[in-house]
Amino acid sequence: MFKPFKLIACLILFCLYSCSSLYVPNVPNTPMLSSQGEFSGGAHISLRGNANFNGAYAVSNHIGVLLGGAYMNSERKRKDLNYKLVEIGGGYFTTFGPDKNRILEIYAGLGTGKTNRSLREYNSGDLISTELQVTDYSKTFLQVNYSSKKNNNFHLFGNNYPLNYGTALRISHVSMDNFFINGIGTPKEDNIFLEPIFFTRMRLSDAVQLQYTTSSNFGLKNRKYLTAGNSIFSVGAVINVGGIKKKK
Asked: What's the pTM value of the predicted model, to 2 decimals?
């Protein structure tokens, strides 16, 4: 019965200490669009202070557009990390199932980001070296989302909170536009990342849900700086206005 708690603890430690890459993935946009005119917006934060926002709008019964971004500024004794990212996209969504409560979404998009990282080494408490890494990069991605609005109730303090679940697979190609170490131009890198994502939403009202997101990150190329060293572990809130409602 303690295995889920051990798994969560391992994920937390992994997210806290797996930070070797200059690429920091953002929380993917999983809007669960279901009909024309629906709007979805979300804000998420990780344990490391990685702040994300997502927005999506259904321009028709099957076409949606996306906007997302992320920002983090972490300062520690041995390492500082500042990064920002913005991305846009669009694609196709459809509902299926007896009550139209299952959703399939396929999106593609592009983005741009920048990462500044300072690495410091100490000897007996004295600073002996500092390395400043700066890169601007471009990103393209393809993403498939599957989710369900079929609710399972979570009972807490005498109240029932409906839960629904989803998963996504994102394939991202990230390529450095420039790369400097201590102000000196350095050979650029690129990589292809596979990012499986899982999320759970707890509905607080017809429009507002809490979301927990976790993911892994796998790089298909052997790189020194653009590696698969970061993953996602975040909590946030999502609003959906419009769309197909669950039948009472």
From this structure: 0.85
